[in-house]
Design brief:
InterPro entries: KduI, KduI/IolB_isomerase, KduI_N, RmlC-like_jellyroll, RmlC_Cupin_sf. Its EC number is 5.3.1.17. 3% of the residues lie in helices and 44% in strands. The chain contains one helix and 23 strands. It has a seven-stranded mixed beta sheet, with no helix packed on it.
Length: 279
């Protein structure tokens, strides 16, 4: 019912001579949404836990205590949730609320019981979650994409026209260090961001989705002057260390969820990379 894989941290020097298989083994999560199961990855990059909760015929609850040295999962953590699948429910401390596609939730430190379920097991909800350490209790907040004024970025000429929906963000709700959002590329656009950037003060994880079977995304990573890439399919995720760029380009438009944590929650705190500096 529940699996969690641990991924350790790497320096840029570590990956210099990685083969394609080794790079994928360390940074790519190939299966995020497993019907009837919870599939999580614990990265030691800022100790983020991310992954998919895909309930079918039974309710699912994340049970992590001994693994984290606590009495219950969110004793010292906060949690962000976004549903990218069918209709479902999220029950928090006994209060059950509907969660349609693109509904999200911020759940604060100290919440003991969070239970996930689907309306239709044949079209299950797919709850993408991200959890990071927290030092303060902030209120639980349900977040709908309909209530967010998206940032509109890019243009057709540069193939990166997109809408950025900030879910767990100071404009929407308070959090300790988690930021989480949902980006949708317009038809005809392929780049999620270019020119690219790093942010030494925060790590990030991406999950790409809303892709057709014959669509591929090339996720660019590595130091700006020594780039590498991961070839990714629908509903796969990847880890982006703070020293790495994180741009993607697809063979068609797509959507992705980004989640960040680290020293601050300043969305614009980025170290931009000039195009001529990329190698």
């Amino acid at each position: 019912m529940q699996e969690m894989e641990t991924r350790y941290t790497h320096s840029p020097e570590d990956i210099r001579h990685y083969s394609t298989d080794k790079l994928r083994e360390e940074f790519l999560v190939e299966e995020v949404f497993v019907p009837g199961k919870i599939a999580l990855t614990y990265t030691h990059n800022d100790r983020m836990i991310f992954g998919g909760v895909t309930p079918t015929t039974k309710e699912l609850e994340i049970q992590l205590s001994t693994e984290l040295g606590v009495d219950y999962f969110l004793e010292r953590r906060e949690l962000g949730v976004i549903n990218i699948g069918g209709e479902g429910f999220i029950e928090i401390e006994g209060v059950k609320e509907p969660m349609k596609k693109q509904d999200g939730y911020y759940i604060g430190k100290g919440t003991k019981h969070v239970v996930f379920s689907s309306v239709n097991p044949e079209n299950p909800a797919k709850f993408y979650i991200s959890s990071v350490p927290a030092h303060h209790v902030y209120p639980n907040v349900k977040i709908s994409i309909d209530s967010i004024n998206p940032l509109e970025a890019g243009e057709p000429l540069t193939l990166n026209e997109r809408k950025i929906y900030q879910y767990v963000h100071p404009n929407v709700c308070e959090s300790c260090q988690l930021q989480m959002g949902y980006t949708i590329l317009e038809p005809g656009s392929a780049w999620n961001t270019m020119p690219c950037h790093t942010h030494e003060r925060r790590m990030e994880a991406y999950v790409y989705f809303d892709m057709q079977d014959d669509t591929t995304v090339f996720h660019m990573m590595g130091k700006p002057d020594e780039t590498k890439h991961l070839v990714m399919q629908n509903e796969q995720a990847c880890i982006s260390p703070s020293w790495s760029i994180h741009s993607g380009v697809g063979t068609s438009n797509y959507s992705f969820i980004w989640a960040m944590c680290g020293e601050n929650i300043t969305y614009t705190d980025m170290d931009m990379v000039k195009m001529e500096d990329l190698k």
